[in-house]
Amino acid sequence: MGETKETAYPYLYETHLHTSQASACAHNTGREMAEAAQAYGYSGIVVTDHNWGGNTCIPKSLSWSDWVDEFAKGYYDALEYGEKNDFDVFFGYEAGYDATEFLIHGITPEWLMKHPEIKDATIAEQLEIVHAGGGIVVHAHPYREDYYIPEIRLFPEHVDAVEAVNAMHSCSRSEYHNNPKFDELALAYARKHNFPLTAGSDIHNTSLLGGGMAFRHRLKSSKDLCDAIINNGDYILTNGDTWFDRNGNRL
User: pLDDT value at position 6?
Assistant: First the structure.
């Protein structure tokens, strides 16, 4: 029997996941999300809760340090589970600018605590701040259409990669935002600008869709994830139903 995609790339990571401890639209805690993801077959998750510019449930009236402490609780809840159960949990967040959203990878809550200026940063300034901290900016679901998105806005000069496979758009089990054209347009946009591609489920509860990025080797940190995305790493993408190579071609 020949090698399958699952055996060739056995380490699957969910790169777009929300918890109820920081995202107002989520339904399960970090621990519950991590436990469900491990049971599904993931090797790890990136907790990307909505930040101060998005659908957060953390009071904006808090001081910056208190806000970050509260915001990171979903991540730390998942991390505690991961450390006890040999499951990778990495920190990120989803930055919102009037419903245009970006996934931030490669930074930590401790780093975020030291950079309160990012709260009022423009999209261009955010990229500079995140880059200085060793992170990257991924345009999340750039062509999604919905009532809460006033317009499609693209920022090719200010992002490092594009989420071209969002399981919520194209997985057969998805119940929200299910329109494959959103991913088709995102892929065309990424190809036009030669952006690396990412994949995730944008999941808000434990009914997982199976989207994400799969690797030949286990990731050691979110820095490994960033390096793979930016430096032409060896990974494949999935929406939970279909597999794609790192260039978005069906496998």
Answer: 83
* Per-residue model confidence (pLDDT) at position 5: 83
| Burial tier of 199 (Cβ tally within 10 Å: 0-12, 13-18, 19+) | buried
Question: What residue spans of the chain are helical by DSSP H?
Answer: 5-8, 30-40, 64-71, 73-85, 109-113, 123-132, 167-170, 181-193, 222-230
Token pair, residue 225, equals 């994830």
The whole-angstrom distance between residue 24's C-alpha and the CA centroid of its chain comes to 17
Structure tokens at 211: 């989207």
Q: Which of 189, 208, 201, 169 is nearest to 248 (CA)?
A: 189
CA gap 228, 199 in Å, rounded: 13
Instruction: Give every residue of the chain whose pLDDT is below 70, as ranges.
Output: 1-2
Strands 235-239 and 211-215: antiparallel
Residue 161 to residues 73, 109, 134, 243, Cα–Cα distance (Å) = 27, 22, 15, 19
- DSSP helix/strand/coil, 235: strand
- Residue 115 has a pLDDT of 98
Q: What's the pLDDT tens digit per position in 222-231?
A: 999 999 999 9
Residue 164: closest CA among 135, 143, 193, 136? 143
3 state SS of 127:
helix
Residue showing tokens 């999340």: 140
d(CA 128, CA 69): 23
**Which residues, in sequence order, are bridge partners of residue 103?**
94, 138
Which run of H or E residues covers position 16? strand 11-17
* Count of Cβ atoms closer than 10 Å to residue 218 Cβ: 12
Amino acid letter, residue 172: S
Q: State which fold the 5-244 domain adopts.
A: TIM Barrel (3.20.20)
Task: Give the model's pLDDT for residue 2.
Answer: 64
